[in-house]
Design brief:
Layout: E1 8-15, E2 18-26, H1 35-38, H2 50-55, H3 58-65, H4 73-87, E3 93-98, H5 103-109, E4 120-125, E5 143-147, H6 168-172
Parallel strand pairs: 3-4, 4-5
Antiparallel strand pairs: 1-2, 1-3
Helix pairs in contact: 4-5
Amino acid sequence: MNWKDFFKLAVLKETMTGPHPYFHAELKVPEEFSIEELLMEEFEFLNLPEREKKLFSLSLRKIFLRHAYFKSREFERIADNFLEKISQEKDQLLTFSTQGGGIYLFLALMKHPLALEEKKVICYSSEFPLDILNLSELDSKQIHFILRPHGRGYLREIPSLWQNSNLIDLFQAHKA
């Protein structure tokens, strides 16, 4: 697994004829890391159990360290483009799937519920998001998240990162 793939924000539109590419953007993140910032000792504050420490590979540490870029201006621009594309859809019920960092596009939609008008959006994802977008209100009346456990999830094997997040509540009622 290449850690940079997490930041390739690909969304597929699920239709009766199967999934079709719908939106793609790449969130540019620095690819260089110092040796020191990648040492496992630098992640002690996460209090990962021994099993998760063993699974918290170098690639996953890089993904974790670059999560702050989902709060950047570039990500906001990408999310605005995604919102614009969805708001132009004529259908009222839209079903999508994504993996990796694509889940944050759908979380960003939650900041603009009026822009979605009467649309209902369903998002299948193999990824649990980290609580980095500071969403104070979790109103998922228009956006429904469904965990697709058989999909490739990057951080799924490290539940200590996401299990206490209030974002998990978005998935609780909608498991596939």
